[in-house]
Amino acid sequence: MPSQDVNAARRFYTRLSPVYDVVAGAGEAAARKSGLRVLDARPSEQIIEIGFGTGTSVVAMARSVGRDGHIVGIDISEGMRRVAARRI
Whole-angstrom Cα distance, residue 69 to residue 28? Predict the structure, then answer.
C-alpha cells in the first residue's frame, strides 16, 4: 500500500525536521556542495528542487540565480517546509 509508505515517510521526516541539520547536515555537506557545483546555477535561471528538506540548498541556489531567477521546491514533509521557511 504505497499511500501508507508515503504517510510513514511524511511522519518520519516531520518528526526529524527540528534536528535534521544536526543529525544529517555534516554528513550531507560534501554531497550538497558537489551537487550545487555541478548544477552551476546562474543569474536569471529557474530551478525546481524536489525534496528540499530544510532548505539549505534552496538558499544557496537563490543566491546564485539572484533577483531575476526563481527557485521552486516541494517536499513531502510539513516539518521540513517549516524549517526551510524559517531558513529562507
Answer: 25
Per-residue pLDDT of the chain (88 residues; tens, 9 = 90+): 467 799 999 999 999 999 999 998 888 999 999 999 999 999 999 999 999 999 999 999 999 999 999 999 999 999 999 999 999 9
Residue 30 DSSP SS3:
helix
**Contact assessment for residue 42 and residue 65, using Cβ atoms and an 8 Å cutoff:** yes
Please say whether the beta carbons of 64 and 41 come within 8 A. yes
pTM for the model stands at 0.85
Torsion angle (degrees, nearest 10) of CA 19, 53, 27, 21: -30
Cell numbers standing for residue 33: 556542495
Rounded distance between C-alpha atoms, residue 45 and residue 15, angstroms: 33
CA distance linking residue 70 with residue 61, whole number of Å: 9
> How many of the other CB atoms lie within 10 Å of CB of 78?
13
